[in-house]
Amino acid sequence: MNDVSVLERANRFLGSLRHCQVLGMRVHAADRAGVTLWLPFSRAIVGNPETGTIHGGAITTLMDSTCCIATVSVLPEFEICPTLDLRIDYMRPAEPDKDVFGFAECYRVTPHIVFSRGYAYQDDPGQPIAHAVGTFMRRGGAPVGAEGKA
């Protein structure tokens, strides 16, 4: 699979997730090495109005989605892979008024489970906001009749 196919799959997958659309997430980059999603800053994702810090739930949603969508970079066919387990270690608060990016890669694929890991950051990937590790259940390809809709 080429990088264009990975990017197309990532956009298709993200487009099917309504909560990601509401948050304004977009695919920033996608290739065989992994996927980066972009979460634009908005007042709607602020968790503490006094400091303007981004809510941890928005970061969790970003990382769950990024880790899951990273499956498109390694699986031969498009599959919906529900989250089985997600662990997020928060390293520091996300700064107010700044966009957040999430990067993830898949590091192991079995017949039933896909394992991924990644991190959220703002300006510098070397200064992560959070690290994430996720496992996702393989259910096979898109359901019959769902071509182009999943």
TrEMBL record:
Cellular component GO terms, alphabetical: cytosol
Keyword Coiled coil attached: no
CDD domains: PaaI_thioesterase
Key words, A-Z: Hydrolase
Domain Thioesterase: from-to ranges: 52-127
Domain of life: Bacteria
Any one Gene Ontology molecular-function term assigned to this protein's record: 1,4-dihydroxy-2-naphthoyl-CoA thioesterase activity
One Pfam family it belongs to: 4HBT
Gene3D superfamilies assigned to the protein according to its UniProt record, in alphabetical order: Hotdog Thioesterase
NCBIfam families: unchar_dom_1
Protein's UniProt name: Uncharacterized domain 1-containing protein
Species: Geopseudomonas guangdongensis
